[in-house]
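[09:14] KT: can someone run the structure on this one? pasting the chain below
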Amino acid sequence: MQIILLGAPGVGKGTQARLIMERYHIPQISTGDILRAEVKKASPLGRKVKSIMDRGELVSDDLMLQIVENRLKEPDATRGFILDGFPRTVPQADGLKNILVKLHQGNLKVIEISLPDQEIIKRLTARRVCPECGKLFNMHSDPPAAGGRCNYCGAKVIQRDDDKEETIKNRLVVYRKSTQPLIEYYREHHHFYQVNGMQEVNEVFQEIAAILGEQATVQN
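[09:31] RB: done, structure tokens below
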């Protein structure tokens, strides 16, 4: 069970990834996490990555693919995995395809959770965070206490710059521009599915579970 979850910020990818992990007992593999792990191991690959990151440069596709391949060879990923933040480009997707063939893991499913931009903006602009304890709130579905105070420590909650409307609109433009070629690639080369993110969390998960059980229709 090899899964790539796609979706703009605010569509609920993190929640769905957690539910998939809990039901199917497969790891969520984040590129940020595996880069840090490789650096921590101080392997030859890790030292090379550290040198690149220390210079503030981007890790090349070839190097990133080597690190991803190493992670997918680990025992906990033999039954499947959820890829988070990878691939980001068509060349990376091509490289991943070759890795999966080499590892005899060819049953890749690419699932995009979709939401209208206005709904994403509504959700993200409603987010608030406690600057003291880090607790997250949502002004619509999980509001803080009266006066905008944190229910846990009493501090005044704030809206992060990332959650302001203009910033969100810019992030959505970047997401659409960078992800659309990837979506077109996966429509052509792999099982690609779209899930309606406007549903309740459990309904979204049930639709994903149906896809993983081969009971849903592929989006062409």
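[09:33] KT: thanks! DSSP finds eight helices and seven strands in the chain.
[09:34] RB: yep, looked fine to me
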